[in-house]
Design a protein that fits this description.
The complex is a heterotetramer, with 2 copies of chain A and 2 copies of chain B.
Chain A: E1 11-14, H1 18-30, E2 34-38, E3 46-47, E4 51-54, H2 57-64, E5 68-71, H3 75-88, E6 92-95, H4 102-112, E7 118-120, E8 126-129, E9 134-137, E10 146-153, H5 157-168, E11 173-178, H6 189-198, E12 204-210, H7 215-226, E13 231-236, H8 260-269, E14 273-275, H9 281-289
Parallel strand pairs in A: 1-2, 1-5, 2-4, 5-6, 6-7, 10-11, 10-12, 12-13, 13-14
Antiparallel strand pairs in A: 3-4, 8-9, 8-11
Chain B: H1 5-14, E1 22-25, H2 29-37, E2 42-46, E3 59-62, H3 65-75, E4 79-80, E5 90-91, E6 95-99, E7 103-114, E8 119-125, H4 132-138, E9 143-147, H5 156-165, H6 173-189, E10 192-203, E11 208-210, E12 214-217, H7 226-229, H8 239-246, E13 250-253, E14 259-263, H9 266-278, E15 285-288, H10 295-307, E16 313-320, H11 325-339, E17 345-351, H12 354-362, E18 368-371, H13 374-388
Parallel strand pairs in B: 14-16, 16-17, 17-18
Antiparallel strand pairs in B: 1-6, 2-3, 2-6, 4-5, 7-8, 7-10, 8-9, 10-11, 10-12, 13-15
The chains are: A alpha/beta, B alpha+beta.
Chain lengths: 290, 389, 290, 389
């Protein structure tokens, strides 16, 4: 088993430019069932001679029964693509795009309320489920292996680091999820923790946080009260100076709760096994699970 | 993107929010003219992209021509050092000279995007004129927040509540409400991340005026506001900032670090800094080359790192997802050659096309130690740094 | 028992001008528990020396635990009042105000989605529950009597007519509800029919429709599939010419479904006892229930 | 509130939606000037508040000065009779003279509020130029509807779909999309209940032009658009309409009815009409005096009813909720006296203050029969009418 995506995932990709087509190839290579592509001006053609292009998400779904969408559309047009996918009723939307204006995300977040759609991201690496060989997004397929650890992270490359550590220590993953580095996003740590708790395959969870905001504290609260499975966590940004934005729009310490130390403490208090660097994730999981 | 105070005030004026009469000048000759116009009662303010101007001597109320002239002379063309600028300070190219107001009351009024509620939030305080951080420490009950609906905007009943919170007198309620509405419109229409008016004053003759104004625009949204883009003042950037800005790199310099860091991904970049520290060394910088780094960008990133003369070693940590390791490797080799850099590199390279990347690096003549993972890199760093001591 | 309001109703009245205060007195006389009033500039004072005025709905609720709100605010300010009451979390809002701009109602209707608040109206006479002597709105208290008939109507005065007919024929009411004459409103026939179906006290339902729109057809569909209790109905506007607005913004025949005859047919087909005029409502109920 | 075509087009222009060059004139003298300016190729259109102008001879394409002059002469100052106006017709005070366009394609484009989805809906058809009702009967598949989000507005992807539905050529897509966006903005900002452009044409030289335009404004929202309120053309109302309008009464005249109806509440008014019919009589009118009727309004309502010379009897049906029966009664008594009316009244009066109301009526010298309820009133009517025959 897995969360969010599996062998039943029929993926629609929207925005098949340079990055989108490169990543679409990687997803196909990995084994993902991409059923349709949406890109203006390419309708009627086929991506890699097999995946039909459509001019609208609604039409693509009607013709191919896609149930998950992934968005590589450039930031200025991403809001429209997300709204189009929400309106189409897709159960899961994964938005990889970075740099979406924050006012656009504010509107999207409000629009999402009461919709039956889950938005993951934006500015996230997506999801990968090794057992069913399904990936939606950009997490490299060659670094994961099937197993029982659920991984959830605010960071892209740091997720790869953690996965790599797990594999080195002999642990495969049930599903790896990047929730994205933007301050306003569709899916939170808590949302994913809930899913991992319910997922029978997942035995332990690796959580990778970073400075800024209070999402790790929310996660800690949830873990304390609702989670039965062990959680191993690390927070990036202990050496970051206050008030400076560390790349991610969300990674800026603006108050007590934004500090790495505050997040470490909240997680430790909730019974989470906190390590000082992702470099030690693998070993800590070993320790906890054996 | 930060706007200067005078630019922010122009924007307020465009939305019919009253600001003091004033002029932006970059030449001393005009001081006399305007101080005369304001009948020897004016405020002179340095126009620089930094906080703490007031405490650093960048703002003064003047009451005579000679006082105005002397103050302006000491500002214009000089560097102003505040607690935010570092020791070099920031150059004052323009000053704002404004008519002084007879203040009856000072109010704090700002709008931000609050990430915890994913909505615009209006923050007000009856204690205007002082730092809002200080108010929040000393008398948090005097700060009121109003969450606005992203889809409906700000409802009138909320504005009525704000009027009540701020004890706006009956005869000024309409005007004040209009100011809040206009400010909200400005915030939304211009993709602001912050508008702060501190203080918004009620004068003795019952006028409402925005005495100070600070507006930040979402960098990710500037593309759809060409007229705001023109307001960007590049003269306020350091040469390093200008370079990182040009290549769209996320770079933050840390004081006195010896280990330059070049990483893809913000989270990994932070983790790399953290690891450097735990290995007993000081990171020199945060640098995220981003997802779609091309050669040109890598070359620029390399040059920015070695611009910092404290840097003795460079740690490259790449886990290629969207980025491709071969492109990064080629960039590093070219940059090293162009700059004739002798600084050794510790390289961890994984993910998309990482074999190709490593082979490009190993086939170059650079001083490169390849590490298999972060922990390995930390061990190498530790050795290198103790060896160097 | 009853629907929507009962002896636990703590009413907040917003807009206590000429009409509002007149009707507030009628509600008090009838027995309604009005706990607070919101009217700008009157805070600190008391209506009729007993009901405290507040300057905002939130404050009124905090101080008086009101759970139902009624709005008499003039049309230009009604949207703001409705939004204020929705934001305050009141479980039921009854908006009497007539002539609210349709664009305002379009926005309110969209804003209501996913809120825990029910809006009744606007442009409606409100609700009355004779058994608990509770009325929210303007239905005259002296024409109703406690009993087992649920009444639901798009029209104000026509509701009174129907009630009067029922009483003449010896039937009391569980609750009488006017859903309002505007084309866009908060609560539909179907919403109220559901509540009456669940209400143990209600034995039969009187439904009063009128020309325009397709709300009676929706009701007919619902009745056919979900309703076990007998329904007696009448439609006003058989003699209305097409294309002319009959007072109510919603009462205009613009297509087949808007015709009184089409509505009569849909209801008859659903097993509803349809009478040609509200004048015969009472007799038909007698006939059906005995 | 209906706008004239020329007013609608002015509004479109304000939102940068192209309309033909043209002039509104109310004097024949200007016809020659403009037909010359348009090089003897123009369209002349009567500006009246009614549908069916074209079929009724109110619109003509003219190709010479003399043709233009003659057509204009036969319109201006005359009454135009269409299938909607009744036999008296409606007065043409103004005509619009417009440059003729070389039409390549005709498109239908409108925005309405669709009550069934509580949202603005854009309706388009590739078959422009004909009545949309006819299109919907003959080829319903050629009508496309787009539901817009009341809170988010119209998303670009929906506009792209509209372009596709309408087969807008690639080089005109941007311009067309901008027109749809602007039209939507106009619709929202001006509280429209209808904007209909039929046809929106693409000319042979690839311009997009709104050849005809019809805009209705929500009567309930006109108060917040003072500039639109000024566009109201009272000359297009009959004296009766003007009177009902002035007193904010809902009145609809029915042909050849003998029973005048005065009722409070729209539903009850309709039911009263229905009952009159079933009693074997013909209702003369729909009249809802509204919830908060004052004496003045009642007097006006009474006068409006007896203005209709077919009326032989008046049925007053009052179930007072917000309205107060005593006020209505007083109004009726005053109006009867003022007009010295001898028309008998059948009165059903219940609800708030109805005892007081009835006693006022009974103490007057009017010819009044009081009925206990609707059924009773029907019986009385039946007697009266058979008696009168």
């Amino acid at each position: 088993m897995s969360i969010l995506i599996d062998e039943n995932t029929k993926l629609l990709i929207q925005g098949v430019g340079k990055d989108g087509s490169f990543q679409a190839l990687r997803m196909l290579e990995y084994g993902t069932n991409i059923v349709s592509a949406v890109h203006p001006g390419k309708e009627g053609k086929k991506f890699e001679n097999k995946i039909p292009y459509f001019s609208s998400v609604n039409e693509a779904i009607k013709k191919t029964n896609a149930n998950v969408g992934v968005i590589f559309v450039p930031a200025p047009f991403a809001k429209d693509a997300i709204i189009e996918q929400i309106d189409s009723g897709l159960e899961l939307i994964v938005c990889i795009t970075e740099g979406i204006p924050i006012h656009d995300m504010v509107q999207i977040k409000a629009y999402l309320i009461n919709k039956n759609t889950r938005l993951l991201g934006p500015n996230c690496p997506g999801i990968i489920t090794p057992e069913s060989k399904t990936k939606v997004g950009i997490i490299p397929g060659n670094i994961v292996k099937p197993g029982n650890i659920g991984v959830v992270s605010r960071s892209g490359t740091l997720t790869y680091e953690a996965i790599s550590q797990l594999v080195q220590n002999g642990f495969g993953q049930s599903t790896c999820v990047g929730i994205g580095g933007d301050p306003i996003n569709g899916t939170s740590f808590v949302d994913i923790l809930k899913l991992f708790e319910e997922d029978k395959k997942t035995k332990a969870i690796v959580l990778i946080g970073e400075i800024g905001g209070n999402k790790e504290q929310e996660a800690a609260n949830f873990i304390k009260t609702h989670l039965s499975k062990p959680v191993i966590a690390t927070i990036a940004g202990h050496t970051a100076p206050e008030g400076k934005r560390m790349g991610h729009a969300g990674a800026i310490v603006t108050g007590e709760s934004g500090l790495a130390s505050a997040k470490n403490k909240a997680l430790s208090d909730a019974g989470v096994h906190v390590v000082e660097s992702p470099a030690y994730i693998g070993k800590k999981v070993s320790e906890v699970l054996t | 993107m930060n706007l200067h105070e005078y630019q922010s005030k122009q924007l307020l004026s465009d939305y019919n929010i009253p600001t003091p009469n004033g002029y932006v000048i970059s030449s001393l000759e005009l001081v006399k003219k305007y101080i005369a116009e304001f009948e020897n009662s004016a405020v002179i303010k340095a126009q620089v992209h930094t906080g703490g101007r007031g405490k650093a001597g960048g703002v003064k109320m003047v009451t005579s021509e000679i006082e105005a002239y002397n103050f302006a002379e000491n500002l214009l063309g000089k560097n102003l050092v505040t607690h935010q600028t570092g020791s070099k300070g920031i150059k004052v190219n323009q000053i704002l000279i404004e008519e002084a107001s007879k203040i009856e009351r000072e109010i704090y009024l700002s709008i931000i995007i609050d990430n915890t509620v994913s909505s615009p939030v209006i923050i007000t305080s009856i204690e205007g004129g002082m730092d809002i951080e200080d108010v929040s420490k000393l008398m948090p009950e005097k700060i009121k927040t109003t969450i606005c609906s992203p889809l409906l905007g700000i409802s009138n009943y909320k504005i009525r509540q704000i009027c009540k919170d701020l004890e706006i007198p009956e005869n000024l309620k309409n005007e004040f409400s209009q100011i809040v509405l206009s400010l909200y419109k400005l915030f939304i229409k211009n993709d602001c991340t912050l508008i702060e008016i501190n203080p918004l004053v009620i004068t003795k003759d019952e006028k409402i005026i925005a005495l100070d104004a600070k507006i930040n625009i979402d960098d990710d949204a500037v593309f759809r506001h060409p007229s705001l883009k023109k307001l960007e003042d590049k003269s306020q950037m350091s040469p390093l900032e200008a370079l990182t800005n040009k290549y769209d790199l996320s770079y933050v310099k840390l004081e006195k670090g010896k280990v330059g860091c070049m990483v893809n991904g913000a989270g990994l970049a932070m983790a790399t800094m953290d690891l450097t520290k735990w290995a007993g060394a000081e990171p020199a910088n945060f640098l995220d080359i981003g997802g779609s780094a091309n050669e040109e960008k890598i070359i620029a990133a390399f040059k920015i790192i070695i611009e910092d003369k404290d840097v003795e070693i460079i740690l490259v940590n790449l886990f290629a997802g969207i980025a491709r390791a071969d492109v990064v490797a080629t960039g590093i080799v070219k940059a090293s050659k162009e700059t004739s850099s002798k600084i050794p590199l510790v390289v961890v390279m994984r993910g998309t096309n990482s074999e190709e990347g490593l082979s490009i690096l190993n086939n170059s003549n650079l001083d490169i130690i390849s590490a298999s993972d972060l922990e390995h890199a930390a061990i190498i760093l530790k050795e290198k740094i103790s060896g160097g001591k």
